[in-house]
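Problem statement: downstream parser choked on a complex file, so we are re-checking the raw output for the magnesium ion run. The parser issue turned out to be on our end (a line-ending mismatch), but while we're here, posting the original submission so the record is complete.
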Amino acid sequence: MYCISMAKITISLIKADIGSFPGHSQTHPLILEKAAKMLKEAEGGIIIDSFVTHVGDDLQLIMTHRRGENDKEVHELAWKIFRTCADMARSMKLYGAGQDLLSDAFSGNVKGMGPGVAEMEFEERKSDPVLLFMADKTEPGAWNYFLYKMFADPFNSPGLVIDPQMHDGFVFEVHDLMEKRKIRFRTPEEIYSLLAYIGAPSRYVIKYVHRKDGIIAASTSTQRLSLIAGRYVGKDDPVMIVRAQNGLPAVGEVLEPFATPIIVAGWMRGSHHGPLMPVGLCDAKCTRFDGPPRVICLGFQINEGKLIGPGDMFDDPAYDRVRGRVNELADMLRAHGPFEPHRLSLDEMEYTTLTVVEKEYEKRWEPIPE
Ligand code: F6R
Ligand code: MG
Ligand code: MG
């Protein structure tokens, strides 16, 4: 269903890995330039404003418009840009050119076709700060911990205790990526039940957070490429939109959880646990062991749909210490080599080449007598 509302603004953050250099480390500047030009041409038509960036090998299209979530034209615009950029990547012989575009023909919505999508429609407030998070070499459930801290943990967000507008708490919509079902948990009253699910981030992923009066506060991407493609195609490198201030967590409360080094799934070959490193745009490239997993955050004020900014939020010495601790954890995990818990557990490795190894040795296994 496509609903056009004149009053409301929609932010669409749509990303895809359409090829990178060298290997899976970063998007090429010429690709970023091309995508930015194509979006600029659409401004004043389908979209109001745009911004193009990348984290690691993922091309990120940030668009504002008044067409609501899941709009066919907006998704088609993103799809066209990804296709054009993938062709360019092929002509430059970039690595993994077109890797996230699972289909040739556009089917009305980029969801399920490879790209990752987070969208949020809202009534613009008098002043509306929005933070856009983009991660590489990890999975959508990686946001679970951070969203919980922002919206449900008063030790992170004192606003939950102090600000009367936040005091009633929030509603978390959780998606079960295996069973394709969803559920809503109310916090603070249901935090233990919420945690029982979201503590398993490879399966249960927070999709939306709303304030109890209905105001949208956060929206994430939930695609799992391997589940769509039916084979191993890497991790999904998720994105997330969070609104801040004036009855929602302050910008600083939204950023604070990233000062703790948290272990996520992804990293090398999408098959390892590693610490998530918050970085500024200048460090948004994956190097060591194809990582470590990275997250950037761009902050904007929204003005009649215009993107005022961005502020490069993790480009700050305040995050030097977490980066140092991430490097220590990376050393510790790397020392495990091919052993768990550095390597993902067997059920998570299901879509990798491990299944090929298992097939090869199937016949050599003998039963152990009782
Ligand atoms: C992880 C990722 C990389 C690749 C690795 C091997 O999401 O994209 O770590 O898995 O570089 O890539 P191939 O198999 O293309 O040589
Ligand atoms: Mg790649
Ligand atoms: Mg990537």
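For whoever reads this later: The radius of gyration is 20 Å.
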